[in-house]
Amino acid sequence: MASEPNNTIQFAGRMAQLPPYLFGMINQMKMEKRWQGDDVIDLGMGNPVDPAPAPVIEKLVEVANDPKTHRYPVAYGMRNLRIEIAKSYKKDYGVELDPDAEIICTIGSKEGISHLCLALIGPGDTVLVPAPAFPVHIYAAIIAGGSVLRIPLAEEPVFLERLETMCANVYPRPKVLILNYPHNPTAVLGTRSLYERVVYLAKKYNFMVIHDFAYNKITFDGYVAPSFLEVPGARDVGVEFGSFSKSYNMAGWRLGYCVGNKQMVTGLRQIKGYYDYGIFSAIQIAGIVALRHCDEDVLHQAQIYQNRRDVLCEVLERMDWPIERPKAGMFAWAKIPPPFDKLGSMEFSIEMMKRANVALAPGIGFGEEGEGYLRIALVENEHRIRQALRQMKKAMREMEQERDL
Ligand SMILES: Cc1ncc(COP(=O)(O)O)c(C=O)c1O
What we know:
alpha/beta; Aspartate Aminotransferase, domain 2; transaminase activity; Aspartate Aminotransferase, domain 1; NHTrfase_class1_PyrdxlP-BS; binds pyridoxal-5'-phosphate; 14% strand; coiled coil; three-stranded antiparallel sheet; PyrdxlP-dep_Trfase_small; EC 2.6.1.-
């Protein structure tokens, strides 16, 4: 019997706006190499490799043994977890939050940012995003139907001037600004003065602010990352997203939160009510333990990243590869030195994967403003970082000889 022809599968129009995922190719190569038995050193993804704090894991196991926790959870976050988040904001930033009106838990911060964009942005709305950018900051707004204008990142005064020029000249006026400090991929740390100016501009030009604060606790050399909400008036204009993924090594657990402006939090709560049922209760309870008892673990983890940063930067400097030492986050943002810059970040990363068994994130994956750079994640141990750089150095020497670069 002749088989019926397949139905035509036709995606929605918005799918055409999503470019090919540039990290996909590097990831695919990495997997294929690993299947063949090659030892690929992965400095590409910001996927933490260290364990979550022991008391958090113990609490998860204990609570997961209680079948009552297997029911649908409180979608917007257990009250006790929201109270604990409020306490941590008071302790860390001196910011008082109402756990019932100004805090909502999310399935990691990425989910929260995406759904908040759906709640705030629609066709005809303009969204400002500093670039290079973590892809969801751009594409959550685009998927929601908005038009994104990118502001090239620069030193603070230049960046603020660009922001103000856009606010004053763009029509329709920007509706939302998406910030992210400490920044992925460039590792730039936000300052109170920057946030103060942003709040001033948000009030003057009437836009909302979403601040992604996923790397809040991973800072080095005594630097502290201020919260956007520390600035007077911030909660009149915006919200801040936090995450358990990086500070507590709980990336796979999917636990985050959104705090700040009541109406924005309510909008997120409303839209999430249609899409999801929140986070497994055992994870939420384990999150309470993380916030209550694991400050030392967070400091220890930040020190681990700082030590890896030191190794990475020292070895790169010895290779005559100038690098700005990141003050925060899980990444170094490295300009590709000549003559290899001619290749572009994608081809250079592919060569490093092929020849050196090292995965790197090409800067172009964060937008054209990232071209010429590599994002190097501090997720392998110091020994492996040294080994990766040795292998890269050898591969670069080979390339120079072969290609007459
Ligand atoms: C800037 C930034 N925001 C958000 C996320 C995602 O965090 P979460 O695991 O909380 O969704 C990441 C992950 O890499 C990130 O780099």
